[in-house]
Amino acid sequence: MRVALMVAEKPSLAASLAGILSNGKCSSRKGSNNACSVHEWTGQFRGETVRFKMTSVCGHIMGLEFVGKYNSWDRVDPAELFACPTEKKEATASLRMPAFLAQEAKGCDYLILWLDCDKEGENICFEVMSAVSGSIHNVHSNRVTFRAKFSAITDKDIKYAMDNLIHPNENEAKSVDARQELDLRIGCAFTRFQTKFFQGKYADLDASLISYGPCQTPTLGFCVQRHDEIQTFKPETFWYVQVTVGENPELKLDWQRVRVFDKEIACIYLNKVKEHKEALVEAVTSKEQTRARPQALNTVELMRAASAGLGIGPHTAMQLAEKLYTRGYISYPRTETTQYPANFDLVGVVRMLQPSNEFGEEAKAIARDMTSPKKGNDAGDHPPITPMRLATRNELESDCWRIYDYICRHFLGTVSRDLKYRSHTTKFRIGGELFTATTSVLLDPGFTKVMTWQSFAKNELGHQFTANEKVKINDIRLVESQTGPPDYLTESELISLMEKHGIGTDASIPVHINNICQRNYVTVGGGRTLTPTSLGIVLVHGYQKIDPELVLPTMRSAVEQQLNLISQGSADFRLVLKHAVEIFRLKFLYFVQNISNMDMLFEATFSSLCSSGKSLSRCGKCRRYMKYIQTKPPRLHCSTCDETYQLPVKGIVRLYREYKCPLDDFELVASTNGAKGKAFPLCPYCYNHPPFRDMQKSSGCNSCPHPTCAHSLSLLGVSSCFECDRGVLVLDCTMAPKTWRLVCNVCDVIINCFDDATKVTVEGKSIVPSVLHQTLTCGWVWSVGLQIRARSVAHSRSPLCTNRRRLPSLMVSRRRKDAFSALPTSFLWLKSTKRLRCAAIRVVVVVAVVSEAEVVKVAADVTNRPKTRWHSWPPTLFSSWASRYSDVFDGCWVDIVDRGIEITAKCTNTFPGKTYSLKLICEIIFLYTNKKNSFFHLECK
Q1: Residue % of the chain over a pLDDT of 90
Q2: pLDDT for position 460
Q3: Which whole number is the average pLDDT over 658-674?
């Protein structure tokens, strides 16, 4: 039997598609990457019985990156990024997506792709084909690989797509590749250069990244342009004649001249009108008018409505719409089309909405008198956004329901009647000057009956005037006013501008708006208005001083047009890419040469490092105090050497007891994330310029392999971290003697211990570089040496205890208390997160007491233990040696509990004021009977 592999874009979508295509008769299993499931069933395909396997990816499989050294900000000139080689790497390495797809594709004869039907989805199609090319023979053939084209997750649409499969469009995929490469090269080159140039020069420049984007920057330019219009606006004073006539209610007349900017001339008109006590009705006209129903809903209109009417940002709105789509409530939410297909079942959708408690009555009324939708634009991509399934308010989250409710009401509005009203215009003549009054009467609410937010405001006249009628004037006055500036752009207005100028696509527009908000270039205010920050304003003005085209929408619009030519097959991928890259390379070189023009604006806006911050630690070069600038990114600045040293972004930095680094003589500082957070010492110079080859940049003393420094990893490292693969638990002395802790130098694991100790040191052989090493192809040896010296205090609580952070998989035991012992209890636990499959275990425990000359060594062997359960060792196993030290130990025993090993040594006799040392060495050898690795954690209690 032939096998067909189907691939969707998301796990939830794969489950929905499998349920529809199999008529709910598929079996499911978890994929090998633990992120995607595989659904299987048997059905018909191309006239034969086939076994189907439906799985998914999680968005893009591959991401474009620079090769090797070009990913380093410090070693590479940004200008080289325009020509350096690139490569595609796994977008999310932890998912192991290419290996997972290749594994599932083994033995398959067909590949059917159910990716989203847009250009990005087309690009993912070819990523999937590349991943399975080693498993499916001739995967690029049209006889092997097929593409499903669908716009809604409904039985009808999905089964129609299955019966009308097409083939992937390589041109659309290449246009996405071109866009990715352009954005990578242009964005990284400009971003790296301007970030490195400005970041270390100004104290109150609150930005860790000063980014540039071919779409992002013109988007910011629209916001700053409106800001400039507001700032440069000069109000002008004007006057107009205001006349009120009639009774119950009074009617204010509109002056035909509207307004006059010269007060003397306005006074002349006022005097002419004041001479009369009555106004003559010159003419009365009446006209029936309509307000057209909306066109079918597309992505841009949905984002505009969500921002302006619902107060939901475009990025969030699209996330909610996509969630509704994957759950089958609406059609595909990324479309530019505003015209329903000729075969679209409008009646069926209206009928589906009739049982609703929210808009069901309106749907029933519309069904009785349905109107053909307005003709819109057919972009040839997807049908407009429409409801596909009825939902209730209780089924959806609050904002999800609001988006769904809008989509349903908008659809009903498109098949409703137009709004109709009658407009009455009355013309009055007073002393030769014309005035008018316009009122409206609602005739038919039409579509506003369901789209209530657009309802018609009535302003009917209490008295209907007739021609040649004279009306008493109640009041005549000259009113003074001023012209006002425009408001800041709203998200809705910005979306319209981006669509008009071709900046981004319907899928990327919300991403670009979200980016300028996250980069701190604009802030979102009331009414979803976008106010540029000082940084955003300076950036745009700087680009305008150097090269206005960097911020104008014309450049990106031209690039988008060329990318569209690639997708249509009208332009060569490599030629378009080469041409665009070369244009921006030349612009970048010009930008670098003239960066001083932008720097002048930064100097006028932000304060220099020399005039900011407070003195903290001494520089190792000039021995003068450096200033600590706390604003992001935090750093130390030496005004004498004119050097700036970056500090950890998180936490508070303080002087660390005036200790000095033995390598460069800089005073050490300590970075602390609060009393319960991670803390470590660091040398400012070594943190920015690692002194050892294997030491990474931005590393503290707890990662420094210096062999003699008292604060280094070599002397304070205790054991490997049990939560991460690369970390080492290091003794944290930054808050001593109040708090002693073991802190991982990579992840966030923290172990609090020795509550009442006055001094704690680490002794013994260094564990660097690793405590975990492979010795046999079928086995592992894990040796952990831990010797901790603690000065005891009489009647203290247990000095060796654990406060676990982020250790959900470890075993929890009761904390024993002994009021008469400084070292009452210590535990060494070994816990497996999977069932142990071992042929033999050897446990060696060494307990050494300072007051005794001998070293007690206990060995125990366990062989041929059952694989499914464990037996406890007898308590008398160690009685032969424990009795020799009865004055010190009450006992020592080993138990295996809940698949874990517990080694307990209990001390009952101590002498206050003296120093004792407890050393536990656990050497454990596991010889596996199969190749499945178990994972173990070490916890001291």
Answers
A1: 53
A2: 61
A3: 91
Token digits of residue 784: 């952990």
Long-range CB contact pairs, 126-129, < 8 A, 24+: 126/168, 126/170, 126/173, 127/57, 127/60, 127/61, 127/62, 128/7, 128/57, 128/61, 128/101, 129/168
CB-based contact 88:63 (threshold 8 Å):
yes
Closest by alpha carbon to 558, among 573, 580, 540? 580
* pTM listed for this prediction: 0.70
SS (H, E, C) 198-232: HCCCECCCCCCCCCCCCCHHHHHHHHHHHHHHHHC
User: What are the tokens at 189?
Assistant: 């080159």
Q: Residue 852: which residues within 8 A CB-CB, separation 6 or more?
A: 885, 888
Q: How many CA atoms lie within 13 A of 37 on its CB side?
A: 15
Contacts of 495 (CB under 8 A, 6+ apart): 300, 303, 304, 307, 314, 509, 513
Contact 483, 261 (CB under 8 A): no
Number of H helices, E strands in the chain: 21, 37
Q: At residue 828, what is the residue type?
A: L
> Rounded to whole angstroms, how far apart are CA atoms 732 and 741?
5
What are the residue numbers of the active site?
A: 332
User: For residue range 642-652, what is the model confidence (pLDDT) as tens digits?
Assistant: 888 889 988 88
What's at 430, amino acid-wise? I
Burial 558-591 (b: 16+ CB within 10 A, else e): ebbebbbbbbeeebebeebbeebbeebbebbeeb
What local confidence, expressed as pLDDT, does residue 754 receive? Answer: 66
Sign of CA dihedral 673, 678, 684, 687: negative
CB 308 within 8 A of CB 492: yes
* Helix, coil or strand: residue 254: strand
Helix 119-131 to helix 170-198 angle, to the nearest 10 degrees?
100
Residue 113 burial by CB count (10 A; 0-12/13-18/19+): exposed, middle or buried? buried
Nearest to 917 by CA among 723, 787, 793, 756: 787
Q: What distance in Å separates the CA atoms of residue 383 and residue 161, rounded to the nearest whole number?
A: 14
User: Kind and range of the H or E element at 478?
Assistant: strand 470-482
Contacts of 445 (CB under 8 A, 6+ apart): 419, 455, 456
Residues in the chain: 941
Torsion angles phi and psi, residue 412, rounded to 5? -60, -35
Question: Out of 11-20, 422-431, 806-815, which region has the weakest mean confidence (pLDDT)?
Answer: 806-815
Take residue 38 and report the two structure tokens written for it. Answer: 């595989």
User: In this structure, are strands 110-114 and 145-147 parallel, antiparallel, or unpaired?
Assistant: parallel
Strand order in the sheet with 679-682: 652-660, 667-672, 679-682
Mean pLDDT for all residues in the chain: 80
Distances (CA, A) of 317 to 304, 491, 522: 10, 12, 19
Contact 751, 764 (CB under 8 A): no
Of 512, 508, 511, 509, give the one whose Cα is nearest residue 495: 509
Nearest residue to 179 (alpha-carbon basis) of 565, 550, 547: 565
Rounded Cα gap, residues 236 and 249, in angstroms: 33
DSSP state of 921: E
The DSSP element (H or E) to which 509 belongs, if any, is: helix 509-518
In degrees, rounded to 5, the angle at the alpha carbon of residue 516 between the alpha carbons of residues 515 and 517 is 90
Burial label for 655, CB within 10 Å (0-12, 13-18, 19+), is: middle
What is the Cα–Cα distance from 926 to 924, expressed in whole angstroms? Answer: 7
Q: What is the pLDDT of residue 774?
A: 24
